[in-house]
Amino acid sequence: MKTQGKISGFSRFTIEEKRKIISGMVKDSNGFLEDIQSHLHRDNTNQQAYNEFSENTLTNYYLPFGIAPNFLINDKLYAVPMVTEESSVVAAASHAAGFWALHGGFSARVINTEKTGQVHFLWKGDKQILRDFFDNNKNRFIHSLDYITANMQQRGGGVKQIELLDLSEKIPDYYQLHVTFLTADSMGANFINTALEELARVFKQYVSESRELNRPEFSLEIIMSILSNYTPECMVECTLECDVEDFNKLPGTISAHDFTRKFEYAVEIAHVDPYRAVTHNKGIYNGIDAVVLATGNDFRAVEACGHAYASKDGQYKSLTELNLTGNHFSYSLKVPMALGTVGGLTNKHPLAKRALELLDFPSAEELMQIAAATGLANNFSAIRSLVTSGIQRGHMKMHLPNLLRNFTLTEAETKNIYRHFESHPVSHKAVEEYIKDLRLRG
After folding, report:
1. Catalytic residue check, 86
2. Residues of the domain holding 19
């Protein structure tokens, strides 16, 4: 086993010492340190906050903070903040929002906001005695958490239900305390985990005090207590509706009839083919993730939950549904999503606070609706491109400024290049060859 160069106690070094150690691992140590320093925040208070968000921080890694305007959601107009590195995502969301703002906008509703946590444990003993004990003490378990849940209860949250699940047919002796929570405007991860760990302690204590359960031949072992990021009961739905003829107003598209016909096939394919479904849903999360990141929420949990939900029927499939009835187009997204507008980074990250301010300080439910609408907008734009001009034409035109950064160009050359690629396919090779040809022609 290779251990040469192993760093011991790295987390205990100062930030300056960490930077010096890590810079010594690269050839251009001076250049590495210069880049590290150049990305530090000029405000020391903000930089100190960034340092504390994560472990072993060296500097900041910036992503663009963009705006998609003209989102009409439940008759309220939003300028939606989006954090993403993919150049076409904000443009796609903006284009879709602009079209739909003139055709009724996005209708969104939160179906439920329940979240789940579990105490996983092994029970070696009589099942019925355990069941009877649980049923007789369930309210006692709930009230044992009152000192933890009191503040949350004042905001309309708290423990909603506790169930005992027997999963011993899947794993010998395996059971769960399956707990349902409401967390108001908080995402609630820390609250849920604290409550679960206390519940596990109390459960173990009550069992040890029970004459029925505390027998030499019985045993209880707590394995772990943790929230679940799968929240199928924390659900938001968003819908777009219009007359089919309205799609004749989409710039540069095929006829409204052909557009909706091909759109319908595209959605149907995403329901039957997992290869297509993954990319279809990725387009949805282009929008959702960007809003989740901008508002300081956990995009990894949101995505993991959504992809699990997409597989709930045994095959991964589209998260969207299309309903074409006569001349009426109805396209909807139904997706589980646990977001918060208080706690965590939402109140600590300076730009997350500004993002929520820009959205007029939404509740968690309102933010769920905004994120879902943005995801549906991106998905609509992606399918629109796929069934008309193709995805690369628009994507690569948005990517052209990034490609041009690889070249030293005059202002006249840059204008000429942009003019040329208005009507030609964009690629690195095509750009490189056109620049050579442009300079040969003088």
Report:
1. yes
2. 15-53
